[in-house]
Amino acid sequence: MREISNLEKLANFFSNMPGIGIKTAYKLAFHILKLNEKEVTDFTDAILNTHKNTKKCLICQNYTENKICSICSDEKRDKSVICVVESSKDVISFERTNAFFGRYHVLHGLISPFNGIGPKQLSIKELVLNIKNNSEIKEVILATSPTDEGETTAMFIAKVLKPFNVKISRLAYGISVGSEIQYADSMTILKAIENRNEI
Amino acid sequence: MREISNLEKLANFFSNMPGIGIKTAYKLAFHILKLNEKEVTDFTDAILNTHKNTKKCLICQNYTENKICSICSDEKRDKSVICVVESSKDVISFERTNAFFGRYHVLHGLISPFNGIGPKQLSIKELVLNIKNNSEIKEVILATSPTDEGETTAMFIAKVLKPFNVKISRLAYGISVGSEIQYADSMTILKAIENRNEI
Fold it and tell me: Which residue of A lies nearest to B71 if distances are taken between CA atoms?
């Protein structure tokens, strides 16, 4: 009986975004109504400009507005270590530590047969090419999440990189810093015991 | 040293929206990158159209794209009961119960001296005018949240409406004190309507 209003359409758009339920979607749609005209066009311009100008770095595949991203083109970064991550979000997390000075390679996904995602849909060939063409690379840290898909992807890449003269490492497993042991799952505790360090 | 990228700008826009933290903001910005061109323009069009075409109903002040909203222009709705709510979000919550067949009045806020919001900034005068001009209205349900601001607003409106020949009621405390109506489940809202009390 009732036609779908623009407001409902907009709320539907928001609710299709990751982690946004229908109530939050309406909250965001109502927020748009409270903006003034300039704020709204600034927002839509930001969406359109980001979509238009953001591409993947020719080396590491991370999102950038240039051919080569700011990390790959930073001569002060250590060229000998490549940290392989699932997504650009992970690059942000690593950068926030201010403790990693190597470079990255962004896979843009994980191997997930259940979701029909195989190695060819990830930027693994670009990683291989980079290592092949770049004798400065001495180590590849496989920094995918310790989930089934993350493990599978790490194991696959480790196998692919075997013929190359690079050290291959994996992020350490353990209990998160600042968390309580009682909330850690058994597998994590098991790994933490296995990887215990002498002090 | 580094200029702010479009992606960061877009993430900042998202993080200024209610309930969106910086991590979710980046998640949403990365989601935009994965859309195709049509999906992006559909989204920005939805934002612009919603902002441009949505106005307030001349009677109840709820958001609509017409002069009179679909509820106020629905002849099947009971004209004798007006449910006064803080925001359009609350109308959605009430409609979801499928148990209220009267009409609404949207205040667009609550009296909040701490935030500099007085009765004049709310659509109270429109409510008074509506009651004055409309002898069919027999009851006004004050359905603001059972918070300090919601109570203050309800008491204020009750006082303003005293001279008029209408029954004034308040939602029953089926809704947990201190919580917001938009987060209440349909059954709770239903009970609160059934148990409304005259004040």
Answer: A2
